[in-house]
Amino acid sequence: MLEISPGPTARIRPSIRRALLSAALIGGLSCFEAPPPESQGTAGRPPSSPAPPPFSEFLATPGLPVEITIAEDDWRAMRVRRNLAQFREQQREFTIRLGPTRVLPASYRVRGATSLKRAFQIGQSYRLNFTVDLHQRLPFRPDLALRRFYLQNMIFDRDYYEMRFSYLLLAELGLFPAHNQLVALRINEQPLGLYLLIERPKDAILRTQTGVSSVYRRSYTEAGRRGDHRVIYQQSPEAGRARLERLLGVVAQAKGDDLVEALESLMNLDLYLRWLSFNSLVRNGDSYDEVYFYLVRSQEFPEGRFELMAWDYDDIMRPRPAHPRLALEDPLLFACEARLDRRIQLEPLLYQRFRRTLRDLLTNRLTPQRLRMALRETRAEVEDLDTGQPAADQQAMKTRRREAMRQFEKSLLARRRELLDLLAQPTPD
Hints:
This protein has 13 helices and eleven strands. The chain is an alpha+beta fold. Strand 6 and strand 7 (190-199) form a beta hairpin.
């Protein structure tokens, strides 16, 4: 169990620290610690409009120390479960410092559902999730500046590698555009361990895609009734909803070639099949409501076609789906729960196409070599991060993580082999 203990903040390597100071000297950003005014070198720029720094890789550093200060009364109150609703609904002010930046004003809300419930269940009510809204954009990479992001407690990813591993591969598969990185979080000088700083899905989609008119998140309803998609963003509500209703209607009623043709015109079917294939490989136990659909208008699809973004991979390599009452038994699909998933499973043309997608993914993209390399990259990233906790606790976590990742690799490669063996079997008539 993670215990709150006093300890040092996460450390940054000396070479990176020198780069940070150089960036602050050259860029003169008001949000960074800077030398006295006479040596700032602002070249006549007014203080109210600082120029961006020449490079900004520093905020994307793994293990970036993030220090938050919250009013003590609020900090005590939000750790009482019955008070959570008010901290979800009302935006409040706090201050935050990210690595080399000075202390900055910002706003926050508590967010999350299942992960918050779990934190309270295991006696870690201090490990809350936050939506952070800065008052200015901060540069994380030369091509990326963020103002809003989530801080996720990773309560189900107890060794801090499953989500980073999954997002690394999903990004390569065109399914995850959001920036994400591990950070060492402290609140009111108390170290909380590693969190995941992650770009909001809507922001990532709008940043990386053109022609987006609507964004929806599929919502979990046991009845699976039509229209169960939560609006995240929309330019023209009527047009977006009409296109979504058209897709849901096709899924419910069309058959055979008509179904395949209609789905092709309404959504990126190949990308959805790739998402299902990845979920099957990693045995993603919670996928029904962990996907975003966004409508993209283009010259080829003037009315719009749905693309998708995966989300929340903290429930992988599970023995069974999170919602077993919704799932249909299938040796190749895992957590087959939504109506669209069921149509893919039961419609022969779609199921054969899924099988081809799965085979291609396993043989050409997610090979044993690539899976091992991704695990090594993830392990190297997290291995030596200083979480600010006592050294003995960190060493115990490191030892546990190494063994957990060895078992994870073994299970993952076995699952891949199992799927390929199943694909080699003749399909039933």
